[in-house]
Amino acid sequence: MNEHAPALRPHLPAAPAYDPATLALYAPTPAAVELAAERGPVVWVPDAYGRMVPMPKHLAPPPMVTPEPRDLTPLPLLDPIAQRFVGAGFGGGALAAGVGYGVGEVVSAAAGISGGALVWVAVIVLALRAPARAISGGKGNTVNIRKAVIKRNRFYQ
Prior knowledge:
Blueprint: E1 42-46, E2 52-56, H1 80-129, H2 132-136
Antiparallel strand pairs: 1-2
Transmembrane segments: 85-103, 109-128
Keywords: Membrane, Transmembrane, Transmembrane helix
């Protein structure tokens, strides 16, 4: 008995080695004569193992469609839509700055006008409250009467 032989395991069945189908199934026998009209057109296609196997043409997968050629013209450095967005951003910022500057000018002008207007309103109010003779140069109808009563108490008389 061979001492180096591995022990057989009776409880595990021997795994059969997988052998893909050979090409002998598709090869015609040498004695048989096959006419082209008796057999349909045959194409050779690759199988899962990379071998070329014959297959009836009507069962073969459709050929791969050739893709359309790509347009290889160079594209612009920046996307035109992105350029429009950037331009709109710069334009909007300039518009906002201009509107802010204009509003500031209008507010400062209104503040200046109101300050000057307040001075003129004060002058007009003072002029209306001044006496008529001061306005007409001292020739008015206004008569001022002043009555003074002086009473002295003396104990020693």
